[in-house]
Amino acid sequence: MQQYWAKRGEWLEMTPGRSLIRQEQQLEDWLRHTLGVPQHLLSAWRQAEGLKVAGDRLRMRVFADEQCDYEPADEPAEILYEDDACLVAYKPAGMAVHPTTPEQHAARQTLAHAVACHYAWTGVEARIRHIHRLDTDTSGPVLYAKTALSHAILDESMRHKAIDRQYVAVVQGMMISLQGTIDAPIGKDRHHRGRRRVTDNGDHAVTHYDVVRRTDSLSLVRCKLETGRTHQIRVHMSHIGHSLAGDVLYGGAVQHIRRQALHGELLSFNHPFGGDFIQVQAPMPSDMAQLCQKI
């Protein structure tokens, strides 16, 4: 359901309806179950007078300035979509979404640092809140929340599989079936740190795929995730005998491309405040585009 919203300084203004505003319990139910405000945030607003009613409009203190929790990179991220609630940044291959070691923190070369640079350059006072991740050598869009409320709402959307991510991959060999679903649980590989494998006691994982075009040696495949397990597409395609080109970790060869041939091309979600359907397309990087021309 689409909903009017606007930023008024530190305040998020919405119109849940005059009848709801007049009755406190109905208003709380609307905030919790329709808008998706977590209980701890609602309690904090009530204690700090962070909720106000003006006629038929409700105001919530959502946009209070926060100290960014990452040092800015030297150059900002490429932004594919942005408003006051969220943004989508493009992650190139070879860049981590966020640092995992002190050395990465010090180098300031992750997407988190690049988004921090964008915030610094545009005057946004907010923490870095990614909603999902991509592997370091996978290119594509990454969704960020700019407030605690939009973070909570988008996190819930992820849990309910309401954020769609579509990928294109180049896999080795000619795929016989033009479309299909791989439903195979994924867990850690006990014999190889950092690697995943299909295993009976793994986490539920489902990947849908369509073959776009194919040759005897390579196939261009479009994949849609129903779940979001680590290395999911890479593991599933390897499991059915079609490792991604360039994916050495899962049996791919580097003769065509020097990283796994996987790109997030499309990200779709409903806006956390307004409910509008948003679809963001990420341009294909040159190495993937050149490889696709060979098919």
UniProtKB/TrEMBL annotation:
Keyword Lipid metabolism appears in the UniProt entry: no
SUPFAM superfamilies xrefs: Pseudouridine synthase
Record family assignment: Belongs to the pseudouridine synthase RluA family.
Active site: 135
Keywords: Isomerase
Known EC number: 5.4.99.-
Family annotation (PANTHER family): MITOCHONDRIAL RNA PSEUDOURIDINE SYNTHASE, PSEUDOURIDINE SYNTHASE
Protein name per Swiss-Prot or TrEMBL: Pseudouridine synthase
Gene3D superfamilies from the UniProt entry: Pseudouridine synthase
Catalytic activity: a uridine in RNA = a pseudouridine in RNA
Stretches assigned to the Pseudouridine synthase RsuA/RluA-like domain: 87-239
Task of the protein: Responsible for synthesis of pseudouridine from uracil.
